[in-house]
User: Which sequence fits this backbone?
């Protein structure tokens, strides 16, 4: 980064050669009744106890990554689909980034609140110079006509949105399985929420960081109660098992985490005490 760049108004952390910035796309509303293994009244109380003014609100983060000669975006927000989010592009400009300067988009998965902002209202690609990378199993799931035929009416819309994005970026769409996807950035398969749900680990001797995608939607509930899944999970049991395993890892390693449904502060650490997990935002 050059000294002439204005101070970024959004939370940022350094991870090796990269500066990672949490860019809010806004909010979506998800009923607490979508949660499993918890009573809605208990979930509501946990949200209020955590200071939530709207217990059903789910924040949407994207992450801007700059360094090593690259401008990378992790996920594309909802783009206003279903009146969800829609603030990504304005906030990117506040961070000093125009859509044409984004050269790489890393997808954690292809739900509408993660890919909706990659196309505009006319269905044209919103990041004309970007290569899109996602897990091979994620692309295969959404492109499978048998999966589409079995989908509910709500889920059919998700397929159509994902396919529109894949088609728009077809010339630069690239898949991976695991391992290093870019210098200093490792793909970490985190299955359960979707078939190819993926986190991105920035490894550095001084500061490592894991962008963990949708491990949680309601962080103050699901971090304390990792057995609680949400109706958006393709495999709720596997999602819960992945969440428990990951919470143990990041708390043991004191790893800085970032997530698409953390609050606008964007970065946090997970503590473990007497067998229970807690969330501490990094400020």
Assistant:
């Amino acid at each position: 980064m050059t000294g002439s760049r204005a101070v970024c108004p959004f939370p940022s952390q350094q991870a090796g050669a990269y500066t990672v910035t949490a860019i809010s796309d806004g909010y979506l509303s998800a009923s607490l009744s979508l949660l499993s293994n918890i009573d809605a009244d208990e979930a509501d109380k946990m949200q209020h106890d955590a200071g939530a003014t709207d217990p059903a609100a789910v924040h949407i983060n994207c992450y801007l990554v700059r360094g090593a000669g690259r401008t990378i975006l992790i996920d594309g927000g909802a783009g206003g689909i279903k009146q969800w989010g829609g603030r990504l592009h304005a906030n990117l400009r506040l961070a000093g980034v125009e859509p044409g300067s984004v050269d790489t988009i890393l997808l954690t998965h292809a739900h509408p609140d993660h890919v909706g902002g990659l196309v505009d209202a006319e269905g044209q690609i919103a990041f004309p110079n970007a290569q899109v990378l996602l897990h091979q199993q994620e692309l295969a799931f959404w492109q499978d006509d048998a999966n589409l035929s079995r989908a509910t009416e709500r889920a059919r819309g998700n397929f159509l949105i994902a396919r529109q994005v894949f088609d728009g970026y077809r010339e630069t769409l690239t898949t991976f399985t695991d391992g290093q996807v870019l210098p200093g950035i490792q793909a970490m398969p985190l299955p359960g929420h979707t078939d190819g749900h993926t986190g991105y680990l920035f490894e550095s001797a001084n500061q490592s960081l894991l962008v963990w995608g949708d491990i949680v939607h309601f962080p103050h509930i699901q971090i304390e109660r990792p057995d609680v899944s949400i109706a958006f999970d393709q495999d709720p049991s596997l999602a819960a098992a992945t969440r428990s395993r990951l919470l143990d890892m990041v708390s043991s390693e004191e790893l800085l985490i970032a997530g698409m449904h953390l609050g606008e502060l964007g970065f946090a650490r997970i503590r473990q005490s007497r067998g229970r997990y807690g969330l501490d935002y990094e400020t």
Q: What stands out?
A: The chain has one domain: 12-281. Residues 26 and 85 are 4 Å apart (CA to CA). The domain at 12-281 is CATH 3.60.15.10 (Metallo-beta-lactamase; Chain A). The helical segments are 40-49, 88-94, 112-115, 136-143, 145-150, 153-168, 219-222, 236-252.
